Every structure is written in structure tokens, then in C-alpha cells.
Amino acid sequence: MKFATRLIHGSHAVDPATGALSIPVYQTSTFAQQSVDHFGRYDYARSGNPTREALEEAVADLEGGSRAFAFGSGMAAISSTLMLFAPGDHLVVCEDVYGGAFRVMTRLFGQWGLEVTFVDATSLAAIEGAIRPETRAIYLESPSNPLLKITDLQGAAEIARRRGLLTLVDSTFMTPYLQRPLELGCDIVLHSGTKFLNGHSDVVCGFAVVKDEELGRRIGFVQNAFGAILGPQDCWLTLRGLRTLKIRMEESQRSAIRVAAWLDAHPRVTRVYYPGLESHPGHAVHASQASGPGAVLSFELESYEVTKRLLEGVDLAAFAVSLGGVESILSYPAKMSHAAMPPSERASRGISDTLVRLSVGLEDVDDLIDDLARLIGG
């Protein structure tokens, strides 16, 4: 089946017990057992829940993985996956990583003994040059947040494989509709499912997906032991959101391409970060590993005054944290997604006080551009 058909008719489409076309919300904490010697498939909802299992199977199928794990947030997925490593282990990480991931790596896992080196992951040589004897994994985002830098995922995975390392990729911006890192040789795909996978700004959730069964067993152990699971009601909402993933991504991406081109030509916009533009330095690499540029872009304005006027005056995009909803969302990385980074770290990565990130939703694109033009200038 093709992707759109699998969204509707995948393994999660029909409840096996009743034939219902919507998997029920199994709102229970525990399950009755009939035998002391042989427990049933489910015993306690932290360890397994039929609604969560249906969602995990759906996401694993879409990514081309063997197992997926649903967590209570994107950061819960990242943090739980980092529990695969031990004190003294070392990771090579893309330098403009999401601020929450930067915070948990440097401040929580850092005090626990995990070591991290941040590199410009657009350069495979920089990635390989940062590997040390104690390195255990390469952690990437492509496109990255918020500067939409592109990493050659297949090339990075080949380096990791030669050196006996894991490759972890946060693919939130792309979703499995546009990019599937497991098919490029990567080991673990991470998502903030809060964003495009759910797509309606009403659930906080996260996913880790693997192809290797043994790696899945290890993450499954952490999920059960650590317990940062996604509840059944949120699983059901995310299953519902998944069904429209293809058409939402296509429409939002179509609009994002037009908005990016308009911004790129605007005299008060000094730079646009979007892999759909041919001027983007990662354009060709991205086109080789993804089927579209996505619906998220960032841009820099000529002054802080224009930036503030846009963020505080916009009508048709919410000025808010997050992305990937049916509504467009304007975010301010310096004080939102990357507020956890010290100012010096943000500056060294090019995250300026005039940088704005836009997640393009499902509004009419002409209305969106008119609203932006009203505040930036025609």
C-alpha cells in the first residue's frame, strides 16, 4: 500500500474486538488476570495499553521500523532514548540542536556524566573529526531547528556504522511522509509528535522508532522502567490526527514554498532559511534524501523593531511556542525554543534576536502573505 492508504487502512484502522473504525480509548490503569502462571497480554498500563499499542504500530509502519515507542512528550522520547548511554559515554551532536535537547544533554545528562561535542553537521568531516574512543552515537536533526541546516544522513550513518556507533535523528520537521531516516541507514528516529504527527495543537507527545529488534528491546525496557508513557486519550487523538498527515503536509508545504519565495524577495528580510529555496546551501542534499522541503522556515528581519512588530501584531499566525498545527505559528527562537541556550551559545550558532521561525498551517496562503506584508511592509 502507498503512504496515504496506509494512513487510513494500516494495522491500526479497525478494532479487532468490535470492528469499530476508531480504536477505542482503553482508559484503564490495570487489567484483570485469570491465571497465576500465565498473565495476559496486558497487565499494567505503564507496560502496555491497547490504544498506545495501536498508535505505536502505526508510527513504526510509517517510518519503516520494527517498533515505535510513544512517550508523554518529545523531550520524554529524547531523554528516555539517551538512557541507552552510560556515564562517560560521548555523543557527537549537531550544533544548532533544539534548545530542549541542548538543555537535557548539557545540564541533566551532563551532570550525570554524559559528554557531548557540538559540531557543524553539514560537514561529514566535522562529524568524523569529533569522534573519540568513548563516542557511542551521532545525534542529528535534518532539517535542524531553527536554522534548517541539512545533514547528509546516509553519509553520517555510514560513518557511524564504520565506527560502531548509533545514529539518532530528530525528524520532527519532516515526518515520515517526507523523510524516513531508517531507510537511509540511521538507527533511531525521534519525533515530537506534538507537531505534525498529531497536527492539531491539542496533544503533547513524542516517539522513538527503530528497525533493529535488539535496539527496540532496549528502548522498550527504558520506556517501561522510566515510565514517561503517553496516555490513552492522547494516543487516540494522535491516531486521529495521523489519518490526515499526508494532505496536511502537502497543503502546508505548498503554502510554505510560496511564503519562503515571497520573504526571500522582500527588502526587509535579510535571510531566509528553507531547503526548498535553491539558494539554500543544503538544497541538493535535502532533495536527495527527502521528498519535499516541509512546512517550516525561518527568516531574519532587518531590525529588532520590525521583528517585535511582526510577532506582536500578527493576526493569522499565532505567536506561540511549537509548530505543526493546522494554524500557522510564529515563534521567536531566542526566547522560546532556544531560551535554554546561553546567549553566547545562541550567538555562536547564528540564532539572532531578529530570527523568526514560521510553521505554515492550512490558512489561505494569500491571506498569510497579506498579514505578513502588513507588518513587515509591502
Structure description:
With 378 residues, this protein is an alpha/beta fold. 39% of the residues lie in helices and 16% in strands. The protein has two domains: 3-242, Type I PLP-dependent aspartate aminotransferase-like (Major domain) (Aspartate Aminotransferase, domain 2), CATH 3.40.640.10; 245-376, Aspartate Aminotransferase, domain 1 (Alpha-Beta Complex). It has helices at residues 3-9, 50-63, 74-82, 99-112, 124-129, 153-163, 175-178, 213-226, 232-242, 245-264, 283-289, 304-313, 343-349, 365-376, and strands spanning 67-71, 90-94, 115-119, 135-141, 166-170, 188-191, 206-210, 269-273, 296-301, 317-319, 328-331, 355-359. Helix 2 packs parallel to helix 9 (232-242) and helix 3 runs parallel beside helix 4 (99-112). The model has no long low-confidence stretch (mean pLDDT 95).
Task: Give the SSE map.
Layout: H1 3-9, H2 50-63, E1 67-71, H3 74-82, E2 90-94, H4 99-112, E3 115-119, H5 124-129, E4 135-141, H6 153-163, E5 166-170, H7 175-178, E6 188-191, E7 206-210, H8 213-226, H9 232-242, H10 245-264, E8 269-273, H11 283-289, E9 296-301, H12 304-313, E10 317-319, E11 328-331, H13 343-349, E12 355-359, H14 365-376
Parallel strand pairs: 2-3, 2-4, 4-5, 5-6, 10-11
Antiparallel strand pairs: 1-7, 6-7, 8-9, 9-12, 11-12
Helix pairs in contact: 2-9, 3-4
